[in-house]
Fold this protein.
Amino acid sequence: MAETVESGASESDTSEARPARVRTALELDLRRARAAQRKVEREAESVRAAATAARRKRPPRALRCKGEPLDCARRWFRLHRWEPFEFQQEVWQAYLNGESGLIHAATGTGKTYAAWLGVVIEWLRDYPAPRTRTAVRPAAPALRALWITPLRALAADTEAAIRAPVEDFGLPWSIESRTGDTAARTRARQRARLPTALVTTPESLSLLLARDDAPSLFDDLELVVVDEWHELMASKRGAQTELCLARLRRFRPGLRTWGLSATLGNLDVARDTLLGVDRTGAARPGRIIRGLVPKALAVDALIPESIERFPWAGQIGLRLLPEVVSAIEEGETALVFTNTRSTAEIWYQALLAMKPDWAGLMALHHGSLDRKTREWVEDALRDGRLRCVVCTSTLDLGVDFT
């Protein structure tokens, strides 16, 4: 009898100890994940310092523009050992002709510079005096170009991209962004005077347009670019963008508007929605410029080997964790998307528990993280220093990989 009681006690102790061991293992994994994330945050400052130093290495003498405006753009491309695509040059000429339209091209083919260099070379044409860097920088012109982007992550990429030709040509422009991540000090300065080029979101633009002095803010506006129009068009944020554009056109009837899109079927509808109608109700004229550069894609679906149970049984699909790890190991850099922030945290911890040697090579990205951490992750992605990033829709439009 004593033996039976002793055996029962032993089984009870074992059953109680098993959850304790599981909790201990989960706590250990969580501590590892937090330690890895702190390492990511510590490296953020050094990466930003290196980026600042790299920007300072630009040639001290501005690139001179001689001849036709399009030749200036081609010279800038050659400076960076690129060759402009035909559709980019077509957009530049259309902009100089005062036209608006929609640029339809695959991701990574240069839509940003197709839409941006037009306003740059127009300035060089209208103000042909040599512009070299001097000790005293002239005052920056008023707001001339507005760039609307759907995501904060894209705002940082876009600001860096459009700044490059402005600095290379030595233009006295100021370029800033205004999103939910913008510092209060910068916002206060922008309330007094907007930069020459502003990268912003539909929500931030709506707040600017609600100001009493909104008409005077946009007195000199020449160009509005709507990035990732296919993402905005069929949503409430797209309707908000259309309302913003309609009000801007009341201030500036001759405003040129260009939309950038990668994956759209009915381009005529997309263009007409972007450009709106005039006061008579007629659709505003606009171009559709296609930049179709062939691009090979490989699509693979991860399916469980046995499907006797519902494939997603368990914790948010963690049954497929080994298959996901194998897929990540096959490539150089991977983005693992989840539907929610909590799911992203779970997958990040699960991947790190299965591959502890990935600590420092993995990162997490969602809207609840600190801005500096998100910026570090985006910079590390561009530089190829991360093997994997677990993210939500904050990165669904990607980053500009180098």
Notes: Residues 123 and 221 are 13 Å apart (CA to CA). Residues 1-15, 54-60 have pLDDT under 50 and may be disordered. The chain has two domains: 30-51+298-395, 69-291.
